[in-house]
Amino acid sequence: MIFRQLFEPLSSTYTYLLGCEDTGAAVLIDPVVNAIERDLALIAALRLRLEITLDTHIHADHITAARHLKERVGSRIAAPAIDRLPCVDVPVDESRPVAVGSVRLAPLHTPGHTDGHFAYVCGDRVFTGDALLIDGCGRTDFQSGDAAALYRSVREKLFTLPDEHLVYPAHDYQGRRVSSIAQERARNPRLGGERTLDEFRRIMAELKLPYPKFIDYAVPGNRECGVCPQGLPDELQAYCGRMTESRQG
């Protein structure tokens, strides 16, 4: 399998490119609209063909590139079925793997950051979106967030994966690129070790993070698979999603 981890610095978002070496088919996980040219250039350089874009959830900190990539190269849009987005070509649920050539991604419903959040397991890798970050997790105070649901998603689903599975999150704000299930299960300060649900609830309630700066534009735009919302401030128009720092967890 061809694999690349790509970083978008404005929202500190990781996008993942997975390609089938036999067929040239590829999937992008959590593509960002203002990184389209970068992603298409890499796909071309690797002689791949983008078949599907796959979002882990409805993002609040950037606009997905799903719709624009479909318009540019004909890729299908895959996203969680639970969100019932009319623009989605491939509704995702736990019963059906997402297959692109020989690349197979097993969806895991991991609500808590949002109620429609999914992680994706591919071989010995798991793409955890915002449910599980390196030494952290996504926030639970907006978009139907629920601390108890996130606790169960991580402890009862993600932490039951094999120790050696590599954890690839949707964000990191300190330059870290990868972790492992064993590491997060042992030492994640919010969810690891013997952390109880009550302790986790208290941690999340006491974060007191500021209101996400881009959420009022990103969520409606992403409910349409990546449409630039009306009323976007002039300074953001050129990039259709370029924004100042908007930490998610």
UniProtKB/TrEMBL annotation:
- Every copy of the Metallo-beta-lactamase domain together lies at 12-171
Q: Name one Pfam family in it.
A: Lactamase_B
- Protein's GO biological process: glutathione metabolic process; hydrogen sulfide metabolic process
Q: Which InterPro entries does the UniProt entry name for this protein? A: Metallo-B-lactamas (IPR001279), Mito_Persulfide_Diox (IPR051682), POD-like_MBL-fold (IPR044528), RibonucZ/Hydroxyglut_hydro (IPR036866)
* Keywords in alphabetical order: Metal-binding
Which is one GO molecular function term here? sulfur dioxygenase activity
Q: Which Gene3D superfamilies match?
A: Ribonuclease Z/Hydroxyacylglutathione hydrolase-like (3.60.15.10)
Write the protein's name: Metallo-beta-lactamase domain-containing protein
**Lineage, opening ranks:** Bacteria, Pseudomonadati, Pseudomonadota, Betaproteobacteria, Rhodocyclales
